[in-house]
Amino acid sequence: MTEQTFDVGDSPRFVASISSGSVEVVESPAGVISLRIESSREAEFEVSHSGDTVTVRRPPNGGGWSRREAHTRLRVAVPIGSTVRISCSSADVTTEVRLNEAYIDTASGDVAIWEVKNAKVKTASGEVAIGTATGDVSLRTASGDVKVGDATGRVEISTASGSVDLGTTRGDVTSSTASGDLDIERYEGSDLDLKSASGSIRIGLPAGTKVALDANSMSGRIRLPERTPSGISRADRHQVRARLRTISGDIELVRLG
Asked: Residue 60: CB partners within 8 Å, gap ≥ 6?
């Protein structure tokens, strides 16, 4: 096991590239990034420090490495508000600290982010989950579910095989899935563009929401909520533009309390 600590300034940034294993990002005191590497070849990892940035790179492939030998467990502690950029061939990534930005690219592995401002995540095979996103997020997975608990900014999601589950969402949403349902528990934004080739679409709308709806389902039903109660004036209604498309699946708008 290798452990190192680095002093950083007001814009801490961590960059990592490993082959397989796991990456865990936790909270450290302000001004410090600490790192722990557990690997059978940890001594050959390249670790560098320049200004506010700490970088860890996997050893060059070769020398008769097997998959088992290349397995790495990386644990890094960064200050609140850091930026992380992580690239993996096959690894799970978990963050447990409030981040400013997260850029994660893994060919195979799950990604779980606790809280972040802006995030861009890409995984070929794995689930993606974000607890809270206060800025814009772009999430792509070829095979895996996508979940976001609370989103304030713009959300862009693409998955070839997997469901999309959003909690309270306040920004514009663009989402497409080839095989999987799309569900937004509570939508408080203004623009939706959702597509599901084989799956249903369900959206919860607060009372008083006025919807400009463009919906089409080739072999499914479209269910709309009852009219807005007469006690809510037109001027007080929140307006949403919704473009919803399914080939095989239902479309449902639900009026919330």
From this structure: none
Does the model's pTM come out above 0.70? yes
DSSP 189: S
Quick one: how far is CA 1 from the chain centroid?
30
Tokens (6 digits) for 231: 């006690």
Give yes or no for a contact between 95 and 42, defined as CB atoms under 8 angstroms apart: no
Q: Does position 235 have pLDDT exceeding 70, yes or no?
A: no
The vertex-235 CA angle with 237 and 205, nearest 5°, equals: 0
Contact by Cβ (8 Å): 151, 166 = yes
Query: How many whole angstroms separate alpha carbon 160 and alpha carbon 140?
Result: 9
Backbone φ, ψ for residue 135 (5° rounding):
-120, -140
Q: Which of 237, 146, 128, 150 is nearest to 194 (CA)?
A: 146
**Can you say how many angstroms the Cα of residue 65 is from the centroid of all Cα atoms in its chain?**
32
**Amino acid letter, 179:** S
Taking only the tens place, the pLDDT of each residue in 45-95 is 899 999 999 999 986 554 444 444 458 899 999 999 999 999 998 899 999
